[in-house]
Amino acid sequence: MISNWFKYIAFSFILCCSYIATSQQEVDTTLVPQIIKPFYKADKGPTVFIDEIHNNFHTKEGRFKPFSTLLERDGYKVKSLETYDLLNTTDVLVISNAINSRNIGNWQQPIHDAFTSEDIQILKNWVEAGGRLLIIADHMPFSGATNTLANAFGFNFCDGFAYLSKPEGASDVFSEENKRLLVSKITDGTYGNSINSVTTFMGSSFQIPEKAIGILKFKKGDECLEPEIAWQFDENTPSKDLEDSYQGAILEFGKGKLAVFGEAAQFTAQTITIENGTFHVGFNSETAPNNVDFIRNLMLWLSTNEN
User: Fold this and answer.
1) How far is residue 181's CA from residue 246's CA, in Å, rounded to a whole number?
2) Domain chopping of the chain, boundaries
3) Which residue has the higher pLDDT, 251 or 279?
4) pLDDT, tens digit, for every residue of 181-200?
5) Confidence (pTM)
6) Predicted confidence (pLDDT) at residue 19 exceeds the cutoff of 60
7) What's the CATH code, domain 2-303?
8) How far is 117 from 131, CA to CA, in rounded Å?
């Protein structure tokens, strides 16, 4: 199994989520779709803040620019969160790939918490009081940096690299057909269009609390590898089976709502150029035809008051 991992990791490193090779990776704003029937009138929808307090790898005008543009075309007002004082004007907060300053450019154990106990208490209290929070934590080191925050809501990350058992070179597809996409109000047409598959691009995994609703679920044979240094694997690298683990779930928490996902590229769009050509990675990829609808459905659920 480990030899297959080496092949897969090498392929993914080049094509999918090589955060180290930033010179080859660019944000792609050219394929953000126009929305014919937005959920909200232009600039009249809920206010979405994208966190920039915690050394985030994804920011509104950076790697999440396609995500923020997509939301704006759906009528949301999208802003950057630079202080918690803005939470009282926030309808939905998105925290993507937070990291402790000690692990910037140092993707090896120990992975330090990106959130202080005060941060966690502020965010937990805000959600309990009615806030809407989307937490995204990718593969190591981001999953480890976010785990203490996730624990406060009952989620627990594997700080590693999650791998779907599948044919070599195949995309990471969570579908109803392969029983990795669970039917929920995010996918069944309750919010937006019904969809039967979602594509991710490597990432992490986590376990969910009893009251959470799983959406992207791993199967027996899927694995999480936990290296000491990101992207460095050998026969001694610890691994665990991901049966009953997830890469996406939602939870109603107090008066608020929470969504947790273990992969960030699915929410944005980028291109990676190598000697063989330029490849689309994210909702601009031809392998991810339903990701835009999935994002729109998820954000509609988060922003809607069902009480």
Assistant:
1) 10
2) 2-303
3) 251
4) 999 999 999 999 999 999 99
5) 0.93
6) no
7) 3.40.50.880
8) 18
